[in-house]
């Protein structure tokens, strides 16, 4: 009899991923920085928001579809770009297939392990994500490759501050996967036979190169070489953002906005979308949960650009809370990575199905026919929950300097 691979919550997928992966691979999925304050707040903050359901008034059909950056999506949940290595042999291609099967779009990291041309063949609703790495000519070359491959949007991620310490220790990522490394890793790997067999069947070890940082058809530089170049690149200015947006010319998202003033400057730079995000707690630890920052940002710029949110989404009801507080859609990171690590493509489909089912039941409970009808009235936000960053506070008269 075939093994039943279905899981009923993202938490169970996480537990399965933990059991299946070698310790260092699982630990790179958990990631986060410093003390882990932000990564914890991202998830826990959703638990502080309540619902205000109706007893009668549910609709028998519920519409979950929307559009994001010009793409029709069948649910307001997109795949956030993640640079994943060695989690599953099919990696981003499996994720793209799953997203396509469930009718949604995908962000592809420039640190992904598969070439964009292969991923786009599996899901044409693909936004290519870039970091500010190298000079304008190098960035142009990567953008032109993405354009030629057929990418339908660009995501610029700038919220990265090269903070590398974690109180629970960081995984040791090898320079390259050769025989010596495999032998060194063997004590970790022998305890994870299923993971090892998956790779053994492909007859090639996990590659630690980043193919989308190089030219089409080439293997791309090793991860650490690209990372070092990124560290050595002067950070972008708002003029650079406007330049890139104009050079690309199509739908463009700035990911990692957490302050109202930055959201307004992003609008001035001409972006079509922003994602309210703190890089899943991987950037500056102590940044508030993105859901806490969402209401003020949505209020300030929601009429001018598409406002998305990512960070801490683990259930369909989290998606509904974010939409009620002003997001057009959300992006998920760890949730699908755990699904991928646990069961490959069907695992990612399972995660998207859980999101869909959870959104549908929350809409039913709230008596809403469509995700577009959600509003702040549907949720209970406790006093002091939100964080409004980047808005000058008025000082009460007579306050001391
Ligand atoms: C392992 C891992 C790798 C990531 N790599 C990238 C990346 O390459 N580019 C990017 O824009 N964001 C990256 N992110 C951030 C995600 O796109 C997203 O912002 C975050 O995962 C959302 O939080 P969640 O994991 O709680 O859903 C990464 C996140 C994780 C967990």
UniProtKB/TrEMBL annotation:
<dbReference type="Pfam" id="PF01070">
    <property type="entry name" value="FMN_dh"/>
</dbReference>
<protein>
    <submittedName>
        <fullName>Alpha-hydroxy-acid oxidizing enzyme</fullName>
    </submittedName>
</protein>
<dbReference type="GO" id="GO:0016491">
    <property type="term" value="F:oxidoreductase activity"/>
</dbReference>
<feature type="binding site">
    <location>
        <position position="277"/>
    </location>
    <ligand>
        <name>FMN</name>
    </ligand>
</feature>
<feature type="binding site">
    <location>
        <begin position="310"/>
        <end position="314"/>
    </location>
    <ligand>
        <name>FMN</name>
    </ligand>
</feature>
<dbReference type="InterPro" id="IPR000262">
    <property type="entry name" value="FMN-dep_DH"/>
</dbReference>
<keyword id="KW-0560">Oxidoreductase</keyword>
<dbReference type="GO" id="GO:0010181">
    <property type="term" value="F:FMN binding"/>
</dbReference>
<feature type="binding site">
    <location>
        <position position="166"/>
    </location>
    <ligand>
        <name>glyoxylate</name>
    </ligand>
</feature>
<feature type="active site" description="Proton acceptor">
    <location>
        <position position="279"/>
    </location>
</feature>
<keyword id="KW-0288">FMN</keyword>
<feature type="binding site">
    <location>
        <position position="129"/>
    </location>
    <ligand>
        <name>FMN</name>
    </ligand>
</feature>
<dbReference type="InterPro" id="IPR023989">
    <property type="entry name" value="MftD"/>
</dbReference>
<dbReference type="InterPro" id="IPR037396">
    <property type="entry name" value="FMN_HAD"/>
</dbReference>
<dbReference type="InterPro" id="IPR012133">
    <property type="entry name" value="Alpha-hydoxy_acid_DH_FMN"/>
</dbReference>
<dbReference type="InterPro" id="IPR013785">
    <property type="entry name" value="Aldolase_TIM"/>
</dbReference>
<feature type="binding site">
    <location>
        <position position="279"/>
    </location>
    <ligand>
        <name>glyoxylate</name>
    </ligand>
</feature>
<comment type="similarity">
    <text>Belongs to the FMN-dependent alpha-hydroxy acid dehydrogenase family.</text>
</comment>
<feature type="binding site">
    <location>
        <position position="109"/>
    </location>
    <ligand>
        <name>FMN</name>
    </ligand>
</feature>
<feature type="binding site">
    <location>
        <position position="131"/>
    </location>
    <ligand>
        <name>glyoxylate</name>
    </ligand>
</feature>
<feature type="binding site">
    <location>
        <begin position="81"/>
        <end position="83"/>
    </location>
    <ligand>
        <name>FMN</name>
    </ligand>
</feature>
<keyword id="KW-0285">Flavoprotein</keyword>
<feature type="domain" description="FMN hydroxy acid dehydrogenase">
    <location>
        <begin position="2"/>
        <end position="384"/>
    </location>
</feature>
<feature type="binding site">
    <location>
        <position position="255"/>
    </location>
    <ligand>
        <name>FMN</name>
    </ligand>
</feature>
<feature type="binding site">
    <location>
        <position position="157"/>
    </location>
    <ligand>
        <name>FMN</name>
    </ligand>
</feature>
<feature type="binding site">
    <location>
        <begin position="333"/>
        <end position="334"/>
    </location>
    <ligand>
        <name>FMN</name>
    </ligand>
</feature>
């Amino acid at each position: 009899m075939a093994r039943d691979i279905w899981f009923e919550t993202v938490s169970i997928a996480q537990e399965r991923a933990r059991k299946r992966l070698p310790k260092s691979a699982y630990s790179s999925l958990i990631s986060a920085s410093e003390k882990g304050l932000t990564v914890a707040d991202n998830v826990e903050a959703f638990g502080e928001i309540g619902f205000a359901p109706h007893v009668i008034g549910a609709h028998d059909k519920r519409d979950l579809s929307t559009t994001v950056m010009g793409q029709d999506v069948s649910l307001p949940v997109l795949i956030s770009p993640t640079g994943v290595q060695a989690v599953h042999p099919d990696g981003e291609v499996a994720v793209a297939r799953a997203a396509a099967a469930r009718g949604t779009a995908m962000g592809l990291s420039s640190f992904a392990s598969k070439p964009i041309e292969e991923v786009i063949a599996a899901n044409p609703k693909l936004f290519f994500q870039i970091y500010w790495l190298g000079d304008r000519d190098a960035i142009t070359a990567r953008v032109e490759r993405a354009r030629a491959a057929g990418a339908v949007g660009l995501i610029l991620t700038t919220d990265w501050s090269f903070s590398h310490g974690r109180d629970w220790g960081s995984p040791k990522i090898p320079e390259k996967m050769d025989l010596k490394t495999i032998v060194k890793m063997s004590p970790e790997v022998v305890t994870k036979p299923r993971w090892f067999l998956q790779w053994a069947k492909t007859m090639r070890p996990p590659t630690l190169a980043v193919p989308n940082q190089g030219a089409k058809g080439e293997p791309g530089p090793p991860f650490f070489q690209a990372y070092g170049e990124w560290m050595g690149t002067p950070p972008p200015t708002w003029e650079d953002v406007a330049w890139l947006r104009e050079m690309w010319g199509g739908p463009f998202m700035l990911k990692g906005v957490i302050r109202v003033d930055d959201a307004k400057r992003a609008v001035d730079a001409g972006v079509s979308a922003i994602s309210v995000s703190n890089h899943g707690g991987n950037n500056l630890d102590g940044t508030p949960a993105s859901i806490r920052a969402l209401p003020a940002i949505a209020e300030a710029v929601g009429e001018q650009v598409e406002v998305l949110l990512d960070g801490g989404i683990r259930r369909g009801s989290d998606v509904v809370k974010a939409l009620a507080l002003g997001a057009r859609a959300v992006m998920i990171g760890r949730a699908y990575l755990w699904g991928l690590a646990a069961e490959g493509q069907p695992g990612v489909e399972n995660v998207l199905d859980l999101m869909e089912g959870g959104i549908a039941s929350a809409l039913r409970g709230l008596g809403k026919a469509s995700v577009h009808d959600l509003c702040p009235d549907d949720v209970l936000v406790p006093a002091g929950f939100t964080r409004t960053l980047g808005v000058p506070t008025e000082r009460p008269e007579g306050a001391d300097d």
